[in-house]
Fold Polyamine-transporting ATPase 13A3.
Amino acid sequence: WVLCTGGFLLLLLYWMPEWCVKATCSRTTVREAEVVLLQSTVSHCPRYYGRNHSGYFSNYFIFSHQFVIRYFTLHSTKYYWNDEVQNFEVRLFFGVNEIAVKVPSVFKLLIKEVLNPFYIFQLFSVILWSADEYYYYAVAIVFMSVISIATSLYTIKKQYVMLHDMVAAHSIVRVSVCRANNDIEEALSTDLVPGDVMVIPSNGTIMPCDAVLVSGTCIVNESMLTGESVPVTKTNLPNPGEGDKEGDGAYSMEEHKRHTLFCGTHIIQTRFYSGELVKAVVVRTGFSTAKGQLVRSILYPKPTDFKLYRDAYLFLLCLVAIAGIGFVYSIVLSIMNKTIIIESLDIITITVPPALPAAMTAGIVYAQRRLKRIGIFCISPQRINICGQLNLVCFDKTGTLTEDGLDLWGVQRVDNGSFHLSEENAYKESLVKSQFVACMATCHSLTKIDGQLSGDPLDLKMFEATGWILEEATEEETSLHDRIMPTVVRPPKQLMPPEPVMSPEQDMELYDLSLAYEIGIVRQFPFSSALQRMCVVARLLGEKRMDAYLKGAPEVVASLCKKDTVPEDFADVLEDYTKQGFRVIALAHRRLESKLTWHKVQNINRDQMEANMEFLGLIIMQNKLKAETAGVLEDLRRAHIRTVMVTGDNMLTAISVARDCGMIPPQDRVIIADALPSKDGQSAKINWRYADKPNNQSPPTSLLAILCLDQYHFAMSGKSFAVISEHFQDVLQKLVLRGTVFARMAPDQKTQLIEALQSVDYFVGMCGDGANDCGALKRAHGGISLSELEASVASPFTSRTPNISCVPSLIREGRAALITSFCVFKFMALYSIIQYISVTLLYSILSNLGDFQFLFIDIAIILLIVFTMSLNPAWKELVSRRPPSGLISGPLLFSVLTQILICLGFQTIAFLWVRHQAWYDIWTPESDACNSSPHANFSPKHNSSEDDHNIKNYENTSLFYVSSFQYLIVAIVFSKGKPFRQPSYKNCEDQRSHVFIVCVPFEWRIALFFIIVVNAAVSVLAEGGIDLWGPKCLSWLCCRQRKVPKALYMHLAQELSVDPDWPPKPTTTTEANPPPPGNTPENCSSCQIMADS
């Protein structure tokens, strides 16, 4: 069969692996199978009323079993056969600890690229043209194909090399491993397996695996995971029985995150006590680590579906069907001989133009060049078209929407239960010994790295505002003690009051001690996003009693304070600051009892410490937006493009920034979905609450204002998102419709959010700047990185402008490129149909177009038109209207069919009319029709040459003249400008054809010109009428039929607009119900809402 089909069967089986498996294997049970066909689908989310998602692709993989353990590897994950469940399962195989990114050879990439169906068809066309001695165009097509293949290979190879270099930079290092009897052994990181105990070097390292800290403390930069370049302190995993709840139960990666060192993160510094080494137990290696999962999401992204490309294949199938009709027609008309067979096959290459890929690429290449001029670089040109459809853009916060870090705007102290006036800072001699400043100086998690203060930006700004000095014990001091050396803070000497004169009888040491004002931080209760606060226990040098200092969310801190210490106007003052977009932190203090010694403080419960506090006041922080942020978001809002914030930062900061930049308007409500996982037999639940009170001082007076009050936004953390994704799939789709703030999101959760938004038919863009955004940037329809580091490896687009102004520019260019693709595709379809009509009419008289006529049409007219009509730059503004997403739409099909009928009509008129002219006769070399006209100015050429193919005749000349102008007419008609592209008149070239094969009378030339003018007028009027009335007629028909919206998010929005129980009321709880046996979440209710008592 392979020989009989000339190798085409092998190609077909290569394109269709499913057929290959069915043709070469027999069906058997999964357990006994040697080859298994796997089908992965994008539509992993629950069906909505049994409706299939539009983004459905299938990929197939083959594996073979080996030895006793039967397994196969898919996307760097091993699946092994489990006899108990009679199926394959994902299990960790502890092989080499390496994240291997193999760079395929150029030859392998070349074979894969060349075997594309389009290139195979081009090869068929080139062979056919060569057999017909049509070498010129064959050479042109080969030249364009070689350039296209070379460019594609260079881009793909470059991406693989960049990713390989990024991963391999720190993947293999030498590590110290503890063996039996505490022997330390040097080994390569590739030899690590879970259970190994590795020693973390004191000078830091890049983690080669995921490990849990069992002794000592580490300061880690986790920007690779979180995007926040803030050092994080990791403490050792507590042992059971130490009075810490975390010590109870088994180790969990999620619950014990602050004790876990993740692969790819940078260990900046370590601390140890009593000469003890800093040790960590390896828990995950290779692709199962946090970094491995990130790399896997880059290597194996789920296929991005785009309707244009699916419709293009359907359109081509229609052209193939038309070509088949012409093929049969040409055979029926003529006798079977070599020439006729070639000409019959030639009609297939006419109907399905081999130059279509090059023509479609032209607009994308020009758009890519325009993007490069404005500092946006593209490694995946096909994504430019998809960017034209974006209707939702996700933004990272830190470094993307805002500048890095926070700035202190001011402080407002409280004294005797009332607020003082706000002050610019606390750097004053009068406040140096106040509890307010002491709280600012001690209640933080700062540390010194290479002599520089480092930590959370909020803590850093707060501490710097005091002007105090922080001192930590040195490594030598720490190693001599057993965790007793505290961190000490003290004010600078210039803020201290004048020193009293020392009397002669005073001891020098006692005198220095009496002058010293130092506070030692005895214990730290780290910041908890769930509790929204942090607390420290400190002691002033020379004092017996200790103090507890608390900072956190104002409402939380106020609830933990004595009522008489909280000002009556607390809520009003807080609301005033939050309306202005400030981040407000509250401080509190408590004098501890003298019976609480150092040892008791180390074991005391946090809740006991954070009770009966005294309210000290507020710190007002400002997270400065980048200058361009608010304007760009407003442009996107006017264009009806939804914006979403997805960040690794905490919830309160994210909501504050969202309000400040206009992502959440002042009058809109923010509902926080706080989801808790199932625990101790209780089902998972979601607690709903308002984040803050919207700005509604005056009652609404207009209908528009009343409608605005009904606007709401959801906000949730990464933990809540994980719980909702697992237990509340039906609620998740509703939440993403209005979800605006997603905080504390891990890298894989960002990717899952993108997929959740895509599952309800959003076209999603993503803008970020960190390695933690890589998976989301790759998964989004249009990902744009503001960093040229790790993120640029995965992102289809990289901007050199470090702000989000690149996003509207990318969408505008995407829309221009998309409209250009539509125009070029329609034009190429019409070009092939026009030529098909001409050739079919000439076949009826056993004639054809000549080689130079084909060459003139294909090179001088078509390629020139294609490249010039692709030059239109993008429109200057981003409009609310979006271009169509597919070729199979009513107005577009009607437009193409109308132009086909018009071209067919006028070519038929010319073909029949010329045969009814008085001077008409069957042309021979001796014919001289020009002499019948007194205005003759054109003499026949090559009269003495042989015309074996019957090319020289009056019908050929007339059709060639009319069709040449028809190409120009449809190009002008299809070249749409406003509102997506600049006007096309700037690109119009004076392309006029005066080529005649045989001489015709002057009167007939005038008649042909009249046909062309009327043709042009009819085509322009028809297209104008379709543009003007087509959408209106379509919407009228849709309204009459009450058509359901195609996009799932629109359908859901319609349903929720009439649902009285949505959105959920604050202080209510949604609980997950386990589905009854045999039922699936799709066909049973999965939750119930209860009022909070």
